Amino acid sequence: MGEPLTRAPRRESTRSELEMKLVVAAREYIRAASSAASLREDEAYPFVFLVIEGLLTCLLMESNSWNRYCWIDGLLPAKNFVGEAVQTVDGRELQLYATAVWCDGSEGWWIEPLFARISLSDADEFSLRYEFRVGNAGRAFGSVLYGARIRRADWYEPAEWRFVFGNLT
């Protein structure tokens, strides 16, 4: 007989838990970006990207167009094409462009463009408004393999997005 399981199984975070984590991550990033002129991007945004990755997977799972065996496997900043991949606006909004890497569980890894906008309220510390746009609706989903070279900046701004989530209008 083996040793008994001593650790509780990992529980997936709920949408509301992930939204609260996004408030914290965005607020920390904005605070750090406004107070440090020498803020290194590679140090500052991994937590924001990680939380967006989890929340985006949760939102996609709630969508009728997403396979339950798929997940977002990572976000890569689009800094080679859009200047600043992550920007703060007026000290309370975060905007970012990235490549979403996703997996379908059997066929491999694919990439899609992602734009995220996260707006925080000065009045309410826990107020969150956000918008995530992911995937080019003008191209077959899962048609760009992970590792493909993206050669055009407009790849990150398709004419029509496949998925749009959030409460920002």
What is the radius of gyration?
17 Å
Helicity range: 10-25%
Termini gap:
57 Å
Order of helices and strands: HHHEEEEEE
* Average predicted confidence as pLDDT: 82
Number of strands: 6
Q: Quick one: overall form? A: globular
The proportion of residues in beta strands is: 25-35%
Q: What's the helix count? A: 3
**Main sheet makeup:** 6 strands, antiparallel
Q: Poorly predicted ranges (pLDDT <50, ≥5 residues)?
A: 1-10
| Helix/sheet category | alpha+beta
How would you explain this protein's 3D organization?
The protein is an alpha+beta fold. The chain is 25% helix and 29% strand. Strands 1, 2, 3, 4, 5 and 6 form a 6-stranded antiparallel sheet that branches. Strand 3 and strand 4 form a beta hairpin. The N and C termini lie far apart (57 Å).
Concise description?
With 169 residues, the protein is an alpha+beta fold. The chain has helices spanning 15-35, 41-44, 46-62, and strands at residues 71-77, 86-89, 93-103, 109-120, 128-136, 161-166. Strands 1, 2, 3, 4, 5 and 6 form a six-stranded antiparallel beta sheet that branches.
Present the secondary structure layout:
Elements: H1 15-35, H2 41-44, H3 46-62, E1 71-77, E2 86-89, E3 93-103, E4 109-120, E5 128-136, E6 161-166
Antiparallel strand pairs: 1-3, 2-3, 3-4, 4-5, 5-6
Helix pairs in contact: 1-3
